């Protein structure tokens, strides 16, 4: 089957089912359900759940059964974006062309919507039709990659780097934690969902390099957006500011190649993952 069709099938599965994982709440506080759904439907690329589903698929797992794992990662990602936009963090008024959650629902409700998505991510994992071991392992891995030694740690470095220049090593560490960690968790959960733990080291190598390439391209696109981008306005250190535009692009290609090399260690048809990595490298938005 064509790689684009497989990726589309993954995205369609995610889009058709993701809202069913949002718990219904009492009318007295339905704003929290509305706010959660608002951010979940804001038009993201679904990069992380697609990677989770595709790793499961190529390793012979049941994509339907492990879908809750993929949804859990997207819940975590979405909560992090809500919190990133808050005035105490990046203070962004818009997310993907729409008012940020805190601009639409107020800061307190946005904060709670993020908290709710974080909490319900783990109930998603617990709902999977997989073994207790797989669910426990998924909880352990996702909480580790999203926690203080993962995504949260990267956010701390980001906050501490405001109004001062980060060197390349600090920037790399920040992005390995803030961006790559959750991408890595998705690929690891795909291996767990397929019950193919032996491929986790290769999945980690693939994802860590893909995550850095992904962030570099984000920096490139932010630079091209120029005066309309909050990171450019605030003077944050980026790969473009430290390396220049062309070298940043070259580094993105190099990290993507390292990711592709890691796939050679996997006994399966990795052509869709390779194609997806290429799409991410060459994206325009």
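^ Assign residues to that structure.
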């Amino acid at each position: 089957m064509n790689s684009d069709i497989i990726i589309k099938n993954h995205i369609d599965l995610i889009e058709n089912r993701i809202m069913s994982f949002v718990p219904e709440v009492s009318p007295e506080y339905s704003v929290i359900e509305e706010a959660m759904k608002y951010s979940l439907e804001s038009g993201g690329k679904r990069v992380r759940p697609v990677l989770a589903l595709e790793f499961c698929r190529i390793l012979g797992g049941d994509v339907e059964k492990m879908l809750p794992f993929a949804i859990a990662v997207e819940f975590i990602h979405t909560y992090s974006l809500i919190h990133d936009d808050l005035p105490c963090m990046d203070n962004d008024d818009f997310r993907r062309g729409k008012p940020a959650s805190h601009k639409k629902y107020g800061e307190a409700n946005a904060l709670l919507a993020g908290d709710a998505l974080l909490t319900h991510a783990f109930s998603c994992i617990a709902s999977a039709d997989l073994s207790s071991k797989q669910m426990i392992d998924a909880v352990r891995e996702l909480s580790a990659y999203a926690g203080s030694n993962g995504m949260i740690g990267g956010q701390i470095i980001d906050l501490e780097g405001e109004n001062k220049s980060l060197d390349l090593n600090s920037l790399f560490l920040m992005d390995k934690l803030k961006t790559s960690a959750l991408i890595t968790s998705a690929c690891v959960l795909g291996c767990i969902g397929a019950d193919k733990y032996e491929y986790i080291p290769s999945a980690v190598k693939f994802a860590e390099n893909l995550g850095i390439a992904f962030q570099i391209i984000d920096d490139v696109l932010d630079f091209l957006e120029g005066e309309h981008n909050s990171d450019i306005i605030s003077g944050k250190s980026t790969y473009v500011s430290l390396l220049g535009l062309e070298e940043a692009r070259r580094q993105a290609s190099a990290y993507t190649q390292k990711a592709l090399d890691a796939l050679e260690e996997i006994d399966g048809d990795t052509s869709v993952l390779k194609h997806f990595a290429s799409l991410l490298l060459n994206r325009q938005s």
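The chain has 14 helices and two strands.
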